Amino acid sequence: MRIGELAARAGTTTRTLRYYETRGLLPARRDGNGHRTYDESDLRLLRQIRTLQDFGFDLEETRPFVECLRAGHPEGDSCPASLVVYRRKLAELDALIGQLTAVRETVAGQLSRAERARDGLAADALVPGGPEPACELGRLTR
Amino acid sequence: MRIGELAARAGTTTRTLRYYETRGLLPARRDGNGHRTYDESDLRLLRQIRTLQDFGFDLEETRPFVECLRAGHPEGDSCPASLVVYRRKLAELDALIGQLTAVRETVAGQLSRAERARDGLAADALVPGGPEPACELGRLTR
DNA sequence: TCTTGCCTTGACGCCCACGTCAACCCCTAC
DNA sequence: GTAGGGGTTGACGTGGGCGTCAAGGCAAGA
Asked: B113 and B64 share a domain?
């Protein structure tokens, strides 16, 4: 199978496959015309890469999985090096989720505080001669 | 105060301040030598920007807060446009945290599955003449 | 006077996973 | 012959927020 067909079957692009080849991740055989040639096992490798990419793995992090499959193992994660990546990724995810959750709570707190302040100021604004909110209409419509 | 002092007091760099100026976010007055000049209110604006940046806001998303402060409001989030950004960011954070959590669970599941499979294969390997794990030592040390 | 230290603008580098040309080749069908 | 639909390499663009020179100016202190 040639590069266009493999790309289509994996739901990606020829550019991506050529990029993977420059990275040494998915080298291709060549036919008489110099065209890249792939087989079903390459599709398997490619799907492994794409799945991990979808999970947010860096390209380099998919390498142990690909090497593992290429070595004849039934799954990309049958090798210890892949498990190391799994564990490192889990730790990264936990750290990230923790940070994002903390930020989320902070922002939520700021929002409700600002909303309360606004409601207070809105009550003030109802008083004749009170302060008027002049920022958005004057500043944001330039 | 000049650019170096402002940068130091805000814990950032002169390059960053010049960048903000090109973005129209933090314009500076100029003295006789053409040097940028800032005052305390600029430090206030800069701290607002940096705080939001630390929360993961894009530079453009900090603009309403800065405009709000510059319009004379007590807080950067005293204006409706800022609240809109808060709410949008909250929604983004929730979506992202949800995705990451789902990925985390998937990866954790894959890891424990792979570990169970490995333990099973390890038992096989204890049998004389059993299959040997040949991938990492052969592939990863090139 | 010379060094030191701060400032200026301009421009390229970085990261990562590709997208998007450009210019060309090869085979097939009409 | 020629149009179309594959393929090839090479090179530059993208985005975001700066880092890092390069080449020069201006003022104060030893």
From this structure: no
User: What's the pLDDT at A71?
Assistant: 96
Report chain A residues whose CB lies below 8 A from the CB of B114. Answer: 75, 77-78, 82-83, 86
Q: Which domain holds residue B86?
A: 82-142
A103 within some domain: yes
Kindly report the bases of strand D lying within 7 A of a protein C-beta atom.
6-9, 16-20, 26-27
> Residues B107, B41: one domain?
no
- The last residue of a domain, from among B78, B102, B126: B78
DSSP state string for A42-54 = HHHHHHHHHHHHH
Half-sphere exposure of A141 (CA within 13 A, CB side): 5
Encoded tokens for A30 = 């060549």
Q: Reply yes or no on whether the pLDDT at B21 is more than 60.
A: yes
